[in-house]
Amino acid sequence: MNAAMRSSEESASAIDLALFGALGDLSQRKLYPALYHLDREGLLDDDMRVLGLARQPLDAAAFRKEVEAALATHVKAAELERATLARFLARLDYRQLDFTTEEGFAAIREWRQEGAERPLVVYLAVGANLYGDICRHLEASGSLDEASRVVVEKPIGYDLDSSAEINDAIGGVFPESRIYRIDHYLGKETVQNLIALRFANPLFGTQWNQNHISHVEITVAEKVGIEGRWGYFDEAGQLRDMVQNHLLQLVCLIAMDPPANLDADAIRDEKVKVLKALKPFSEASLGRDVVRGQYIAGTIDGASVPGYLEEEGANRRSDTETFVAMKTEVANWRWAGVPFYIRTGKRLPEKLSQIVIHFRQQPHYIFDPDQRNLAANKLVIRLQPDEGIALEVLTKDSGLDKGMRLRRGPLHLDFNSAFPKTRIPDAYERLLLEVIKGRQYLFVRRDEVEHAWRWCDGLIEAWHDLGEAPRRYPAGSWGPVASIAMITQDGRSWYEDY
Ligand SMILES: NC(=O)C1=CN([C@@H]2O[C@H](COP(=O)(O)OP(=O)(O)OC[C@H]3O[C@@H](n4cnc5c(N)ncnc54)[C@H](OP(=O)(O)O)[C@@H]3O)[C@@H](O)[C@H]2O)C=CC1
Ligand SMILES: O=C1O[C@H](COP(=O)(O)O)[C@@H](O)[C@H](O)[C@H]1O
């Protein structure tokens, strides 16, 4: 964080927030808890107001009750303080609105009149099919001005063409400098820590390339299944839902060159270079280096769970993937020849997001030949849960009878125990704070979204040509056996020290 960022951190900015989709799942589970926590931390200006917009006919009092109920469900009881809650609820107002017609949008302009000097932030917590309509109606109703910002959720489209269409619609009303595209992984504390780890520590900065790193592993494993979103998910699949955005953003943060500074565009320029350098799959590499899976019924934590095709809302046979593993490469000078193994899936045994950087072995090995497989350092970056960083190093096994036996052990930084008083904020807290302050470095620029789609579209097209059904895996396993074979064929294995 540069000096300008640091000094503006202390002062909260006053904004008016118009929240479209104010009674939806995202608002209730993520946005109100995040705003409440910001208020509790003293990070919301006293004058900040929130206007909830949705189609149900509620008045402000009934809306506040809905929000209070959402907070009671999604904020820990110990963190719900009466005074903060009262202050937060008093910020809220509500208007009933159908987002598809311009009629009614004047209500936003009228609500704005009271706080016209504050920038308006428009948060679109609705499906992307509504983004264009809402932006146009906001403009036509005279609700916007030169300082208004818009926040949009993923997924932006279904492929490159649809994403370009949506981006055009938003871009027809808001300039890129006032569009905040959320990828909530960028708001996670440990994901931001990747920037600090890489660029604040010369120890890693000098080693971060193909001369010293043999391969990189990224695992984003989920225990949950489809969570009532079968209709959406079946159209998307795990590649579009997770890889196109979250996993490729992680690849970017690991692989990018140092930005000249921490400005949004300096960082985003470097990420775009990584996306452009991602190797496309050939027909041969597709069969060898990519595994798609779909879960069948199984057991997680001792409880039976249904298969993907038996989940609530499942209404057809489907070959949509719920798991993807692949070996890819960032084809540039820094990373040529270094495989990036990535995998993500639903209904896996753990909720775990982890990056493992495998360093190369020493050029000449002098210890016990039986221990050769130990002989490389690993940097394990745990994004969730139990956020932390561990560097696996080799030391001498102690004891008179051990000779020069090696022992592998971690130099471990566990954020929760190292900094016990620091609550690790939810990603949406950080992201909302950045929007309020008008800083874009944690948001995704249009060209990032589009380069990521271009690469994914190529992969999806090749899958279609191949015409193979996904491999089945039992819920509660680590995915199809082929995903293990994919990495063992290179003489490696997925890091398993969970
Ligand atoms: N939920 C999550 O965890 C995540 C969501 N997202 C994204 O966030 C966005 C919102 O998702 P989510 O909250 O789950 O969706 P929901 O369907 O739960 O919420 C959408 C809200 O918008 C309202 N709405 C829809 N159409 C209209 C309309 N024409 N006029 C007025 N109100 C309307 C709905 O009202 P009604 O109830 O009356 O239909 C509902 O309150 C989506 O883009 C999604 O992809 C991204 C990441 C995670
Ligand atoms: O964007 C999404 O992310 C969640 C996983 O997020 P996490 O913060 O819990 O790791 C995923 O379940 C969902 O399908 C996807 O749309």
TrEMBL record:
- Pfam families, alphabetically? G6PD_C (PF02781), G6PD_N (PF00479)
A GO cellular component annotated for this chain's UniProt record is: cytosol
Native species of this protein?
Answer: Billgrantia gudaonensis
Q: What is this protein called?
A: Glucose-6-phosphate 1-dehydrogenase
For this protein, the record's HAMAP family field holds: G6PD (MF_00966)
Q: What positions does the domain Glucose-6-phosphate dehydrogenase NAD-binding occupy?
A: 19-193
Biological process terms from the Gene Ontology for this record are: glucose metabolic process; pentose-phosphate shunt, oxidative branch
Sequence ranges assigned to domain Glucose-6-phosphate dehydrogenase C-terminal in this UniProt record: 196-494
